[in-house]
Design goal:
Helix content of chain B: over 70%
Shape of chain A: elongated
CATH class of the largest domain in chain A: Alpha Beta
Structural class of chain B: mainly alpha
Number of domains of chain A: 2
Largest interface: A-B, 19 and 15 residues
Largest sheet of chain B: none
Number of strands of chain A: 7
Structural class of chain A: alpha+beta
Oligomer: heterodimer
CATH architecture of the largest domain in chain A: 2-Layer Sandwich
Helix content of chain A: 40-55%
Largest sheet of chain A: 5 strands, mixed
Order of helices and strands of chain B: HH
Amino acid sequence: MKKALLALNSIKKSGVIDDYAIGGAIAASFYIEAVNTEDVDVFLFMSASENSVLLSLQPIYDALEKLGGRVEKEYIVIGDWPIQILPAYSPLVEEAVKQAVSVQYGNIETRIFSAEHLCAIALDTGRMKDFYRVASFIEQGKVDRLALQQLVKKYQLENKTKKVLNWSGDEN
Amino acid sequence: MKTDKANAERLEYVIKAKASYRADARTKTWEEKVESIARMRRAAAVRKHHVA
């Protein structure tokens, strides 16, 4: 993982990308228990002037390949980890990238989605494992319920909360 | 048809496993948890290889 983070920080420093933030299960494991995942989801904010996602991602793949990455299917593998580079695909994800928090992985600085944005995106994605993830954040007291409620309202996710078993339960 | 005893044992196992995961979440660093995910990935790849 360290190799991947160093490579991402390197392309940020050299200006290939403005910034990035890690989401998905890897980011969630910062806050709650680890669950298995195939890859590291790395989200980028793409400027509105980009005409094509494919064209705009190419320089990023090229830069990461120069740093030892190899392209495999939709991933670029750095060290042992497949990295999936994803443009922020919705206003919610754009906000998550912009408001990501800086954390340390060992001695390496990186950025991950806030607990509240991880939960809101999980609600939006809406698979069973996503609802379970939100329930885990709530059960372990790792999410600001008020801030999450505001995101739910802002992004009209109210119906999705019905699938989270402990959504209406007592707050710890 | 599963017996009540088997269900009770399964429930006990799930409760213990869940408690273990929660303890890991409290005590392990992020780096340690990511290492744990890496081990899960490797184990899953081995299982997939054996099935194939």
